[in-house]
Amino acid sequence: MNTTMNKFTNLKEDLKNSLQFKLGVVTKMVFKKVNAQLVQEGIPVLAEQLPILMVVYFQEKAMTQQDIANLLQKDKAGIQRSVQTLHKDGFLKIESDIEDKRKNMVSLTSSGKFVCERIQALVIAFNNQVMEHFSEEERKQFLGFLDRVVSVIEK
């Protein structure tokens, strides 16, 4: 019975120290903190919606929902829901494609551009708050490790 309990305890520790668990915890905490900052700043956007806004912002021209889904490697249905919400909130404009009426073209409204600029400042400030606890060498190493994880997973 004792060896079974030790195996269970070891497995539990292995899971707690796994890449998936650690990244999941960090992601959850980052989203929670960023969402709180967005609320504090009066920006009615969720951290989960930021990638969509930023992709459209940096693209600088209208793009399809499928293009957004492909770029973010997300399913089209999830992107569509977020796009509809951001449209309803006045940050995105949705228009039918002139050439293919089945496609919706998504672009930022002036409110969307303004919000994206405010969000960029918040994201940079948040990043600086976290990274100030690391030396320059530690930052480079940490980001290098994350880049290596991405390249290993992509293989």
Please outline what is shown here.
With 155 residues, this protein is mostly helical. It has helices at residues 2-16, 19-40, 50-59, 65-72, 76-88, 110-131, 136-154, and strands at residues 63-64, 92-96, 104-108.
Q: How would you describe this protein?
A:
The protein is mainly alpha-helical. The protein has one domain (23-154): Winged helix-like DNA-binding domain superfamily/Winged helix DNA-binding domain (Arc Repressor Mutant, subunit A). The protein has helices at 2-16, 19-40, 50-59, 65-72, 76-88, 110-131, 136-154, and strands spanning 63-64, 92-96, 104-108. Strands 1-3-2 form a three-stranded antiparallel sheet. Strand 2 (92-96) and strand 3 form a beta hairpin. Helix 3 (50-59) crosses helix 6 and helix 4 (65-72) packs across helix 5. The N and C termini lie far apart (41 Å). The mean pLDDT is 90. InterPro entries: HTH_MarR-typ, MarR/SlyA-like, WH-like_DNA-bd_sf, WH_DNA-bd_sf. One of its GO terms (molecular function) is DNA-binding transcription factor activity. It holds the Pfam family MarR_2.
Describe the secondary structure blueprint for this structure.
Elements: H1 2-16, H2 19-40, H3 50-59, E1 63-64, H4 65-72, H5 76-88, E2 92-96, E3 104-108, H6 110-131, H7 136-154
Antiparallel strand pairs: 1-3, 2-3
Helix pairs in contact: 3-6, 4-5
